[in-house]
Specification:
Length: about 525
């Protein structure tokens, strides 16, 4: 038997603990045929075998982003870039919005995304007045990097009917000036009041967004993603359209939002695991709280710089717990966005109640983000067998706003990968893109170094090894979606999803891992991305 593809002469990271060193991988069809040294695999080369000489480069399993937003990423590529950097000031963002508005007919929406007030020279959120300086003839919505806070200009506020007399909606707040006038800054459910006025993307627009996002993921070696929130039938249809055509760019697991689609799925017998290796149904998801940067993540203690608040619940806590229990009883793997320690505690309470009512030995219920932990919560996670899905780039991007809001001591177990490994807790790495970069190697770098973008060291006790970080971004993502028998490691019989990096990672300084480029991305045995200039 001859292989269809042979990669040889490199450093192969199989992500299998204790596996012997390997330098070559052979592929037959869409599966891995063999892994070993060059000499052992040379007999698998036949007259039609394609070969890729690695020349010392590193091969890993395809990266699996366990929590991200591909549709939002694809759509964001057509929005105004408000990230900080490249923007340094509010004026920079205003200028970009004004330039976009000048090319659009009056009355059309302008959406910008990506700012973090902690990285702006002004050290504050933009306001409606700032955005009015960009345009008064277009409704404008500027979304913070986290996606939980936004700023609307006066036109957009009028369309959403938000004025001095508008009450805060349940689960959200409208920032106000001293006289009660909305500043334009909207948090959580208040932001939704404006978002609901945006034109909903069509199925065709969503299809193209998924394509664009897929190209971006493949450039970064990401071969599997877990879409963190399907709420509309059009979103389902966009993914199904691509899958039916055989054009889905990356393997995708879909999280179903409990408040939108759980009952519809339950009524027709759709459960976690429905689907195939390309497109499948993942967990049922709920939002418990918000973000640290927006001061809406629900904490057990007040924020340092906002002693008047512990954050927000997205719904009544008893109702949130009831919904999780109901999703469990409906046969779904369950997960929830839970960033603050109070939110994580409530989610664990819900998991415990659900499992008491209806025991399930291998539930793999998940904690999305699982940001701010305490030792007692870690004990409960280990005991329950819950799976944390840490945002492994968050400390790199948002450390400054975390520290000003929580102080340093409360970050002791933030994204605590070392503790997870030592306690036998499976934690699957994620980017939450477009909140953070889809670059998996930036997440790996942050896990290995525990350094922020400014170089500050954040509780180095939680650093992990390079091999462990790769495992968190490959095998653990597969475990989190019940697919570890199919992918996540380089072993015979598993899907031939793999990445060729431009050099031997062992020779790269930890602080430079994010700059390493992907030379080839292979999905199902086919080279689907080749970096220009790669030999």
């Amino acid at each position: 038997m001859h292989a269809d593809l042979l990669l040889y002469g490199g450093h192969v990271v199989t992500a299998v603990a204790g596996a012997p060193p390997a330098s070559a991988v052979a592929v037959l069809g869409d599966r891995i045929l063999a892994v070993g040294n060059d000499e052992d695999l040379r007999p698998l080369v036949g007259p039609r075998t394609e070969t890729i000489p690695l020349r010392g480069r590193t091969v890993t399993p395809g990266f699996n982003d366990a929590h991200c937003h591909p549709m939002a990423l694809g759509l964001s590529l057509g929005e105004v870039d408000a990230r900080t950097p490249p923007n340094r000031t509010i004026a920079d963002i205003v200028q970009r919005i004004a330039a976009r508005a000048s090319a659009r007919p009056p009355g059309t929406w302008i959406v910008a995304r990506g700012y973090d007030q902690a990285h702006l020279a002004e050290g504050r959120h933009p306001t409606r007045d700032d955005l009015d300086n960009a345009t008064i003839h277009h409704p404008v919505l500027l979304i913070r990097a986290c996606g939980h806070v936004g700023v609307a200009n006066s036109y957009a506020l009028r369309l959403a009917e938000i004025g001095p007399g508008t009450p805060d909606p349940p689960g959200g707040t409208i920032d106000r000036a001293a006289d009660g006038t909305p500043t334009g800054v909207l948090r959580e459910a208040a932001l939704t009041l404006v978002r609901e006025r945006l034109p909903a993307p069509t199925v065709d627009e969503l299809v193209e967004a998924i394509r664009r996002a897929g190209e971006t993921f493949l450039q970064h070696g990401v071969t599997s993603v877990q879409e963190a929130g399907i709420r509309r039938s059009a979103e389902f249809l966009a993914y199904q359209t691509l899958a039916a055509r055989g054009e889905l760019p990356v393997r995708t697991s879909l999280m179903i939002l409990i408040d939108h689609l759980l009952e519809s799925c339950r009524s027709v017998g759709i459960r976690t695991g429905t689907g195939d290796a390309w497109l499948r149904i993942g967990p049922a998801k709920l939002f418990l709280d918000g973000s640290i940067g927006g001061r809406t993540a629900r904490m057990s203690q007040p924020y340092v710089d906002r002693p008047d608040t512990c954050g927000l619940w997205m719904d009544d806590p008893h109702e949130l717990k009831r919904k999780i229990v109901a999703a469990h009883r409906a046969g779904f793997q369950c997960c929830a966005h839970a960033i603050g320690d109070a939110a994580i505690e409530l989610l664990l309470d819900a998991f415990e109640e659900a499992l008491e009512q209806e025991p399930r030995p291998d539930h793999r219920h998940r904690i999305e983000h699982c940001s701010i932990l305490r030792p007692d919560l870690i004990d409960r996670i280990a005991r329950l067998g819950a799976i944390p899905i840490p945002g492994t780039t968050f400390l790199h991007d948002f450390f400054e706003v975390y520290r000003t809001g929580l102080g340093t001591d409360r970050l002791r177990y933030a994204y605590a990968l070392r503790t997870f490994f030592d306690r036998g807790i499976v934690a699957a790495a994620s980017s939450d893109t477009p909140v953070c970069s889809p670059n998996a190697l930036l997440g790996i770098q942050t896990m290995v170094t525990r350094r922020s973008a400014s170089g500050e060291l954040v509780w180095p006790e939680e650093r992990v090894t390079l091999e462990e970080a790769i495992r968190a971004y490959t095998l653990h993502g597969a475990i989190a979606s019940f697919e570890e028998r199919l992918k996540g490691t380089l072993e015979p019989g598993k899907l031939a999803d793999l990445v060729v990096l431009e050099t031997d990672l062992r020779d790269v300084a930890p602080d430079e891992l994010a700059s390493v480029r992907v030379d080839y991305t292979v999905v199902g045995g086919r080279v689907v991305h080749e970096r220009p200039g790669t030999a």
